[in-house]
Every structure is written in structure tokens, then in C-alpha cells.
Amino acid sequence: MKTYPLPDGTSLPPLGLGTWRMGGGMNADTSRDAEVLEALRYALQIGYRHFDTAEIYGNGHAEELLGRALRESGIPREEIFITSKIWPNHLTYDGTRRACEGSLRRLGTDYLDLYLIHWPPSLPLEDGFRALNALVREERVRYLGVSNFDVPLMRRAEALSETPLLTNQVPYSLFNRDYARNGVLKHCQEHGILLTAYTPLEKGRLANSPVLASIAAARGATPAQIALAWLLAQPGVITIPKAVQRRHLEENLAAADIQLTPEEMRALDALA
Length: 272
Description:
The protein is of the alpha/beta class. It has a single domain (12-202, 229-243), classed as NADP-dependent oxidoreductase domain (TIM Barrel), CATH 3.20.20.100. It is 44% helix and 15% strand.
């Protein structure tokens, strides 16, 4: 799997594991903890080193489960890349600092590799970035980013951040090109900002595409793997599909090693 070099000399795996609905939706749900922990443990066992979570996922319970799995794995912290996100209504100076400390406590770590503003806030970005910049200076956070921001908001965030934004995390997939049409993908690529594609798989639409089915069959792969490979073939695009079943965890990780031909890329590009 290729990796993206980061400014501090480390690297970022382009395919990570998303944790939305692991531990609940907007509220904690412990009823599937055993299944989720098994999935996280297996992901670590087979080589996942990039994990995405948020304080709002299960009202913090996803962070707790991920933290537990990471501690139990025995894998050195520096080998894991952890992203978490602050909910927009916490984006005051004090609220940002409290939110970050809460995420660090639940994850059981001294620092976050990447900290994102989860959605465009109604609160002033200036106060939030004053705290975010301080967290970077204090080495509580390595990199900053945003999520679901359009180009004008990205420009505002870039101006307020003392360090270059690492990513904008947005919904982007073979069948959802909204953030290509609105200019975000181009802006990211032109300014050295990664675009992190969430919800990269739309299973129903994948199953109904003859073009995708044909390429997958010729490759001995699944349509989902080809859809992920299409994303990762694009400059500056990474992705964080969620999976719980072992087979899906294995297939998603293997998709990062599929190299599509120019002809296959053109055929998939034309599906938009």
C-alpha cells in the first residue's frame, strides 16, 4: 500500500477504518460492543493503522472502544494514525480545549494525529482556531483539518490555521461527485490538501452498475474494491470505509493495492 508522506517525515496510509455507528449513533449503545471490539482487534491484526472517529460517534463511546482495542493490541502508539473530530457547537476557545481533552481521555492517548472540525460551525471560526493552534503548539494535536467545508470556508480555515490544513473530509464516491462539482476536490489538489472520502461505498448502486461489475470480474475483485481503488487512484484522495465483518475488512484493505489502468479509470469516470 502506498502511503502519503507527511511534513514531519512520517506517513499516512491512504485507506483507514471509519468508526461511525461503532458504539452507537449520536448516543452511546453498548449492545454490540463485543462485535465492534472484535472488528477493531481484527483490523489491527491484519494491518490497519489509520483510524477515524469523532466525539459525537456514540457520544464518545466509539472513541472508548477504539482506545481499548488499541491498548490491547500492544502496537506502539507511533505506528497508529488516529483522527478525531470536534462537534461544531463546541468550537469556542474553552469548548475546543475541553473537547480535545475528552477525546484524548476516551482514546487513552496523549495526542491526536489529526483533529478535524466536524461540520461548518455557527460559532466564529477565530475562537476555535485560536484553541486548535494552541493544541498543535502544545503537541496535543499533530495536524489540523476540516470536514464538510466548501471552498470559501476552507479558505477561511486555511487563513486562520497556523499550520497547513492536512485534509477536508467529505462525502465522495464513484456515485457521489458533489465535492468534485463544487470545486473542493480541485482546491484540495491545487493546495496540497488531502481529500478524505467518507461513505465511499454505496452498496445498492455498486451492485447495479454493469461497468463496475465487468471491471471487477476481469480483475477477480469485488465492485466495492474497484470503487475504492478508483478513489485511491486520484491524486491526493484517501478514504475511510467502515466495516465490521472480517471479509469486508480484508477486502477493503486489499483494495489499496489494486492499480487500475487508464482505460478502466476513464470508464469509471464516465459513470458520474
